[in-house]
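2024-03-11 09:14:02 DEBUG pipeline.ingest accepted 1 chain
2024-03-11 09:14:02 DEBUG pipeline.ingest length=295
2024-03-11 09:14:03 DEBUG pipeline.predict start
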Amino acid sequence: MRAKTILTVLFLISLAVAVVVILRAMPTQGDANANTPKNEILVATVPLAAGTLLRAQDVTWQVVPRPVDPGEIVRPSEGARQTKPEIDEETRAVVYGAAMRPAHDTAAGEPIRRGSIVRPGDRDFLQVVLTPGARAISIPVITGGASTGLLFPGDRVDVILTQNFKGESTTITRRSVSETVVENLRVLAIDALDVKSGGSFGRTVTLEVTPEQAEKVNVATELGKLSLTLRSVSGPDGLVATSTAGPGRATGVKPTWAGDVSPALGGAMPEKAIIVQQPPVDVVRGSKREAVKTE
């Protein structure tokens, strides 16, 4: 009986010691988890297929409770962001306008790795980003106005040509005209040397075109000034917007003349004096007959 009591006491003591050890270990485990570094890396917000041009809405920061793998894009530390707030966006902007390489399809939530993208200016950029049978053409566009700061790689645009005609025989209402020459072109690069800024796009824009569209754009650059208008991503039915014009055909958008914009131009020219020509008067002097013009 006494031995049984001793064993019971020893069991209770052992149980108490085990509880104390577990309780002491739990805070240590919590501290260890708290001290584990949590990095933030750049990941895809949507599935990204090969050739996709990355935009700001396609990527985001995501916390990963593990060491960062080589090639992943890491968010600057909180201290660095407080010292230089713009560094956060500058780090994200490394991928803006870049294209996903072949065989590097990325699912939503997966990391964006430096080796899986190709940037404008890289030797193989156009080979990766162009669709089969397409061409790339760089055109000068006017700065300022609606074109400035609105466009990013991956957007869809129309090309508008504006011409001015000179000459005394040209009616004032027909001296300027604007017309859409090509529709629904994909923007590949915007002034490749300044893609990071995302601001007003300098002097040239690289577009994806068919061979026929390339010819039309080349002629348009010789005729007048070119500007770009941004298209909606989807049409009225929710589908991807497509061009209504085939290669070499009219776009279906009527040209806009100066007189269409400002009807007041019709009254800007002074009225010409109306000259009424009087019939000649016959004057008879003896046997001679002369025709005299009257003023």
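2024-03-11 09:14:41 DEBUG pipeline.report The first strand starts at residue 39 and ends at 44.
2024-03-11 09:14:41 DEBUG pipeline.predict end
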